[in-house]
Design brief:
130 residues, 2 helices, 28% strand, globular
Length: 130
């Protein structure tokens, strides 16, 4: 871990943060990716298509942040999924499974009262660095 200090992660392929936070922080052998909404990186707006489309875009945005940090989806250790409605769990889970087929990371999934921009899902992750 010597020589690895706290580094802000910036990706041109993911939406810019919509508040006073970083998209990710790399430190030591880990990267901590902030919660990612299903936002289109260019427009900054939620992608149309409901929970499945938002989940897919959220995970694509998360992948871009991890890549910018020197990690990848295959190195994700833990995710937290925040759902606006737990009734969307099975549809979110089907898309989530496309991204984590073999040896998926540990995960928590919780329903929350609301998410930024009226999003249906937000996903955060902790991953190992290469």
């Amino acid at each position: 871990m010597q020589g690895r200090h706290r580094k802000v992660v910036v990706s041109g392929n993911a939406p810019k943060p919509i508040g006073p936070y970083s998209a990710g922080i790399a430190h030591g052998d880990l990267v901590f990716a902030s919660g990612s909404l299903g936002l289109d990186p260019q427009s900054g707006e939620l992608v149309p298509g409901g929970i499945e489309a938002e989940t897919r875009q959220s995970l694509n945005n998360l992948a871009a942040i991890l890549e910018a940090a020197g990690s990848s989806m295959s190195l994700v250790l833990k995710t937290t999924v925040f759902l606006r409605d737990m009734a969307d769990f099975s549809r979110m889970n089907a898309v989530y499974g496309e991204f984590f087929r073999d040896e998926p990371p540990a995960r928590s999934a919780v329903q929350v009262a609301a998410l930024p921009k009226g999003a249906a899902v937000e996903i955060e992750a902790v991953a190992a660095l290469r």
